[in-house]
Design brief:
alpha/beta, 212 residues, Rossmann fold, 5-stranded mixed sheet
C-alpha cells in the first residue's frame, strides 16, 4: 500500500512491515494456534490424516477492495475470509477491521473458532475474516463503502447454510446491517440470517451490542 500521510495509513503500513513478504501465513498468532493444536493432537492420539486436515484451513480468500474516499481519492484495501472446517455445519466467525489483519491471523482465529464451537457442541465450523485498515482514520461513509465492497467480493463463499459472518473488532450492528443489505441485494430478497449481530429491527437478537 502506498504511504499516504494525510490518509492516516501509518499504522497500516507499520503492521504490513511485520509480515514476511510473500508469506502472510507466517504470523505469530498462526504459529501459536498450530502449536496449541499439535499439543492437543498429541494428547488424544489424533490420526495423521485428520491431523493434517485440521491443521490447515479448508479455504482462504484474499480480495482487493478499491473504494473512493470522501475527498474522491481512490484507495485499495486488502480483505480476507478464511474458512477452516466445512463438515460440521455452516461456518461461523467474525469480520474485523484493524491495521494488523492478515491471512495468518485470520487462519489462526478461524482454527480457534472451530474448536470453540466443537467444545460447546455447536454445529458450526470455524471461519474468520477482516479488512486491513485503520478504522480510527475512516469516516462512517468510508467504512460503509469498505464493508459493502467486502460483502460483494466474498459473496460466492458465504450463505446461511455455508458461512455466517458476525461482528468483531471495530465492527458492530451497523456494519452487519450494511453487510446484510448488500448480500440481500445480490440474491434479490432479504436474507437476515446471513449475519448475526445485526440490529434487532432487522431480525437481530436483543442482548450484547459490542463484540471483541
Amino acid at each position: 500500500m502506498e504511504r499516504r500521510e494525510k490518509g492516516g495509513w501509518e499504522s497500516v503500513l507499520d503492521s504490513e512491515r511485520t509480515l514476511i513478504p510473500g508469506a502472510e501465513w507466517d504470523s505469530e498468532l498462526h504459529r501459536i494456534a498450530v502449536s496449541q493444536f499439535d499439543r492437543s493432537a498429541d494428547l488424544v492420539g489424533l490420526e495423521p490424516e485428520i491431523r493434517t486436515q485440521l491443521s490447515r484451513p479448508r479455504r482462504a480468500l484474499v480480495v482487493n477492495l478499491p473504494i473512493h474516499r470522501d475527498d474522491g481519492e481512490l484507495v485499495t484495501f486488502t480483505g480476507y475470509r478464511v474458512q477452516h472446517v466445512l463438515t460440521m455445519g455452516p461456518m461461523k466467525g467474525g469480520i474485523r477491521f484493524a491495521p494488523a489483519v492478515s491471512l495468518g491471523k485470520c487462519a489462526a482465529l478461524a482454527l480457534w473458532m472451530t474448536f470453540k464451537c466443537a467444545l460447546l457442541g455447536l454445529p458450526f465450523g470455524g471461519a474468520k475474516g477482516g479488512v486491513r485498515c485503520d478504522p480510527n482514520r475512516l469516516s462512517g461513509q468510508e467504512m460503509e463503502r469498505i464493508m459493502r465492497r467486502y460483502a460483494t467480493e466474498i459473496f460466492p463463499l458465504i450463505g446461511p447454510d455455508r458461512d455466517i459472518p458476525a461482528p468483531d473488532m471495530a465492527t458492530g450492528e451497523r456494519e452487519m446491517a450494511w453487510f446484510m443489505d448488500t448480500y440481500s441485494q445480490q440474491v434479490g430478497h432479504p436474507v437476515p440470517e446471513i449475519v448475526t449481530g445485526k440490529p434487532v429491527v432487522l431480525g437481530g437478537t436483543a442482548g450484547r451490542e459490542s463484540a471483541t
